[in-house]
Amino acid sequence: MSDTLSIVMFSGTADKLHAGATLAAGAAAMGRPVNILLQYWALDAFRAERVEVDHGLAYDSMAPGASKPVDGTKAIPWLDTFRMAKELGEMSIYACSGSLEVLGIDIADLDPLVDAAGGIATFLMTAEDGQVLFI
Amino acid sequence: MSDTLSIVMFSGTADKLHAGATLAAGAAAMGRPVNILLQYWALDAFRAERVEVDHGLAYDSMAPGASKPVDGTKAIPWLDTFRMAKELGEMSIYACSGSLEVLGIDIADLDPLVDAAGGIATFLMTAEDGQVLFI
Amino acid sequence: MSDTLSIVMFSGTADKLHAGATLAAGAAAMGRPVNILLQYWALDAFRAERVEVDHGLAYDSMAPGASKPVDGTKAIPWLDTFRMAKELGEMSIYACSGSLEVLGIDIADLDPLVDAAGGIATFLMTAEDGQVLFI
Question: Distance from the CA of B131 to the CA of which of B103, B122, C106, C129 falls in 20 to 30 A?
Answer without folding.
Answer: B103
